[in-house]
Amino acid sequence: MRISGIVDSFSSPAMMSGVGDAEVTDEERAMARAVSHELFCDISGHQGFPPTGPSDEPAIPPDVGSYRIFDYAMPATQPPYQALGDDYSLKLLNALHSEDLAGQCEHSMVVSVSATLPSKGDMLGDKPLSEDERIVVYLPGGAFIGGDTPGSKWMYIRMSMELGLRVFTPRYHVAPAFRYPRPVHDVCTAIAFLVACGFRPQNIVVVGASAGANIGLSALRLLAGSIGVAGCVVVEPCLDLTLSLDSWQRNQEVCVLPYVSPTHPGSISRMYLGPVDGMDAVELLGRPLLSPLFADVGGLPPMQIQVGMDDVLYDECVAFAKRIPTAEFITYPGINHYTMFRGRTQLGRFYGNLLNFVTR
Description:
Layout: H1 3-9, H2 26-40, E1 65-72, H3 87-101, E2 107-114, E3 135-139, H4 152-163, E4 166-170, H5 182-196, E5 204-209, H6 211-223, E6 231-235, H7 247-250, H8 268-273, H9 281-285, E7 303-308, H10 314-323, E8 328-332, H11 344-358
Helix pairs in contact: 5-6
């Protein structure tokens, strides 16, 4: 498979950004690793993805599903943050909160619906279809520089089909234009907005992948005192931005994510953190709202953790699961950060486990 083919597969209808059922070949697995190691070995020069508009979004056939992108505002009732003992984060978060109250922050979200769901009203609206409607808030990954992309709409609709639920995806802002903690604030605001629209917290399940899981866990910790959601599923979650555990080295030859020291300005960790103004970058990266592995897990909702055993993030997932004995911890032998969402066999396992958790 040519290199451009691997890159295209992340957004093509054939793969549907994780929706395609074609089994992964050894050639594809090797090429994905080679391309990803080249792309992410130094992203210090990354200037952000080109802006997208309506013409860039995919035309989903009506018999498959539909989606709508809409703008929303932070609810005026959303209180200032209490950053759990981290004055550095508290200052940044409440600066964003003040800017948002003044109307200086923009927010948008995607609502996605599979055509297999029975119509019960405004399926693409932002209000509950019934008092007890359960929804998924899905936070895509993307190394803190991706997030919602045009091709991802296919995956949102596949998730809606597999779970039988509407899927709401906050379009959180990404680096380098927006650094920590803007994405965390965006997710807090999105969940607060949905609750203000009438969705009951006990009917909201947050599902986050990779960087999206990191952002989601931090948002849930900040919201724990005011909004307690029904549950959280983290899939191959990025939990330790200091990259301190052994699987980062042990799985380098089989995973698509390259090890780049968090002290390097071209690392994913530093791209998300941004300028540190003379502070110790690694110490900041180890703070709980940046690295959930080191956070107080009290107040988090019921949780499912899914990770491949060939993922460089595997050890931090094991360590995190040990801190939450009630969490359902699911591992997949031979699966890495790329193959988690590839192939009929693995997708069947992933969605089956997700369905069991979300609908219990």
